Amino acid sequence: MFGTAEELNIGSIPIESIPIEQHHMMPAAIVGYSIRTGEQVILHDAAKEGMFTHNPYVKNNGIKSILCLPIMHQNKKICMLYLENKLSPNVFTSERLDVLKLLAAQSVISIANAKLFTAIQELKNSLEDQVKERTRSLERSMLETSAALAEVSVYEERSRIAQEIHDIVGHTLTSTVIQIEAGKRLMSKDAGEATQRLKEAQDLVRHGLNEIRSSVHMLKEDRYSDLSAMLNQLMRDTERNTGVIISSEMEELIELPTTHKKTIYHALQEDLTNGIRHGGSAEFRFSLHSVDSKVCFRLDDFGKGSETIKMGFGLRAMKDRVEQLGGTLAIDSRQEQGCLLRIDLPYPSRKIED
């Protein structure tokens, strides 16, 4: 607050930013002295006493009483209070000074609170802006994540269908080729038996097509509810269609999820096909049992074997399935000693607890 009785102004004059000598509303020397020393200046008759009697501002304006009071808060100078009177000397008595100091103390607290409130409002506005920006960023991330998950889901589903079709087609075609070869050999010797073999080959192809349609249309019924029956049926069909011998030993397992059942079924299907097609094996030994918290799958063939195993699409897909379920797949093979497929699948946690 500054001015005269006729014209009063309310505002602040930054001490640091505006040189006090440039301000025409107060004596620069007196205010500057109080600022530098931190002392209050009280002049009861400024033109006749004290160190500022010759100050041009005091002489030219006929100043009588002057008060210059530093306003402090928490040992920090907040502002300066300058008052003057041109009419009477001895205006700023000790009683009035006490009142002014009390008012100044209340004023400085109000100023500090106002600054604090302004800072809180600015912080609030800043936080609101940050929250809005963060929300927009999260929304963009969620949209991008949703799109990525949708793409991954589509890819996984395509891979799943491709794996099932591969398993079905590979096994079916292997059995079909063997039946056709047998039919060709019997054509000149036993036409009836040859016709029967070709009919079985035809039935195998039809069966394979039906299986493919089931996979493509993603039928939801649980075909694998009775795993033992499904495995036995697969082994009997393979024996009948290819002439191989399969001995098996399976124990009753704790109820498994469909994903585990499908993995076991297609692993047996894939490895029987590989053993016949690539290993030339005429005999297999299969076992399925549980050890601790794992399902142990073992399939021995007595074919050619190999020092190195090169994984094709079927074996890679099988390995991926097993690892997705937290299991392990390994193949032991030696030249002329056949192959051993080992798969260990952990039971799901809830099954272990049951």
TrEMBL record:
All residue ranges annotated as the GAF domain in the record: 29-110
EC primary class: transferase
Signal transduction histidine kinase subgroup 3 dimerisation and phosphoacceptor domain ranges (all copies): 157-222
Assigned keywords, A-Z: ATP-binding, Coiled coil, Kinase, Nucleotide-binding, Phosphoprotein, Transferase, Two-component regulatory system
Pfam short name (any one): GAF
Coiled coil (residue ranges): 113-140
Gene Ontology annotations for the cellular component aspect, listed alphabetically: membrane
Residue ranges constituting the Histidine kinase/HSP90-like ATPase domain according to the UniProt record: 262-347
GO molecular function, one term: ATP binding
Catalytic activity annotation: ATP + protein L-histidine = ADP + protein N-phospho-L-histidine
Domain of life of the organism encoding this protein: Bacteria
Listed EC numbers: 2.7.13.3
Name listed for the protein in its UniProt record: histidine kinase
